[in-house]
Amino acid sequence: MPLKCKRDEDRNGTIPVAEKAKHTCNDWDIAGVFRPMSSFQNCFSDDFLQADCCDPMTPYEFLQRYDREEYNGDPRLVEGGFFPSSKLGVESGDTVGVVLLNLGGPDGEEAVEPFLYNLFMDPAIIDFSEVVYFQARGRVRQAFSKIISYFRSKSVAEDYKEISDDGGSPINPLTRDQSSNLEQRLNEQYAAQTGATFKTYMAMRYWEPTSEQAAAQMQEDGVDKVVLLPLYPQYSKTTTGASLVYWHELEKAGEIPAWPTTSVFEYATYPKYIEALSDRIDEGLDRFPDDVREDVHFLFSAHGTPLTEMTEREDPYCCLVHSTVQHLMEHRGFDHEFTTAFQSKVGPSEWLTPATDETVETLAEEDEDVLVIPVAFVTDHIETSYELAIEIPEELEEEGAPIPEHYEVMPGLNSHPKFIETLADMTAAQLQLPNEKTPTPGCGRPCYRPGSWRRRRVLGEGERGSGIGSGEERVPFSIPDSNPLLVWINF
To answer: Of 156, 175, 94, 213, which is closest to residue 387 (Cα–Cα)?
Structure first.
């Protein structure tokens, strides 16, 4: 019996199940993830051939759609414009589905390779559009993703074992906790007064539970309205944008229902988020000896992105990271010297600087004690618990480079009460609830509105701000003086 769905019609009509199965096997993409070839032995089993629904969109199929729609040049990808950010009307009796968007992580050693494959297949993360001819781009990326995920999976799996007993990422259980706490908070605060019910769902971009799995559960639960809530306080096309465009394409392909939907853009300077970060900083400072605590240098570390995302595509991420840091230090009264740096660089292209590892070395040379503050991460995971806490000090030691005498990494926000309140407020701010006044949206889009911006020159290489009390960061940026980088920051 032939299989038919909207996505198949996009590929010139009805495709027989056996033919679809063969096509999918050749792509190594079943259920949207990479599998080793041995897993396809049952690809043509009777159960598979009698399937009566569409397979989930595979990474390769999404890549084809992404390139065909030319999303890398679509302003919606950097403006969060795939879904409205206006308030969505809710009536008594409605079920509101709140979808927590995050990247996800492998749930065990065997999941590391397919997780990496899914990650590298995402064109919002690594852009091949300027280096590979369109017709060959998909196959080149697929080959690249297979090779890189295969060769990197063993070492990455060892890294996960350093921070987890089961070899999985802590981001998964920690996000489940956030989801559960948020659902409880929303229903306690709004359900009785409004007659609406709130249910939360996790949609991990590169692992399970996937967006498709979240949507299937939402449909089963009878969800009426949807809020897409990124667990990325600072918007970037490579994070929130990647999740939004995927959800958008699933809707277009008919893979998930097209609910009335609103989305949260960012909450980089929302006061409760700032308070939660400040509390975690205090917890981190408690780990230092009393006699050095007041002089500890704050090193804010955010995940890096290619420099071209900001300079050419006007991605607001760098602006929003610096804006978070500025508001946080204002909240604390500029009580410590601080620097902002970027981590996790991959590939040969130029990324946002300074690099976190190089900054740690520089601060060690100046005899600074360092508290690293993962400013763009909302849970503990491999890039905080391993890269910042273990890998950087170990690599500096192996190179014979200096290491700060006292070096600590701030605990993640995880389910800090103020952060859960932030998520609840951001959700409610996107809704018009009956009998209830909802908070003001946390985002005024300061990086997009001319006239509300204030231009601030990021310091050139070798330059330095005065630190305490001045509001200036110590940011040695490796940009030529003839081409100073200008960042837009909402003060």
So the answer is: 156
pLDDT, one tens digit per residue, over 241-268 is 999 999 999 999 999 999 999 999 999 9
- φ, ψ at 363 (rounded to 5°): -65, -35
d(C-alpha 413, C-alpha 226), whole Å: 25
CB 2 within 8 A of CB 14: yes
Give the predicted TM-score (pTM) of the model.
0.83
Q: Are 286 and 406 in contact (CB under 8 A)?
A: no
- How many angstroms separate the CA atoms of 286 and 280, rounded? 10
Q: Where are the beta strands (DSSP E) in 167-325?
A: 197-204, 225-230, 261-263, 297-303
Residues with Cβ within 8 Å of residue 397, at least 6 apart in sequence: 403
What is the 3-class SS of 67-120, one letter each residue? HHCCHHHCCHHHHCCCCCCCCEECCCCCEEEEEEEECCCCCCHHHHHHHHHHHH
Dist CA 227 CA 367 (whole Å): 47
Short-list 253, 254, 200, CA closest to 226: 200
Tell me what the mean pLDDT of segment 386-401 comes to: 97
Residue 274 pairs in a beta bridge with none
Tell me the CA distances in angstroms from 249 to 60, 206, 245, 368, one per residue in order: 13, 15, 6, 48
pLDDT at 348: 76
Query: Bridge partners of 203?
Result: 101
Domains observed in the chain: 271-415+444-489 (3.40.50.1400)
Q: How many other β-carbons are positioned within 10 Å of the β-carbon of residue 176?
A: 15
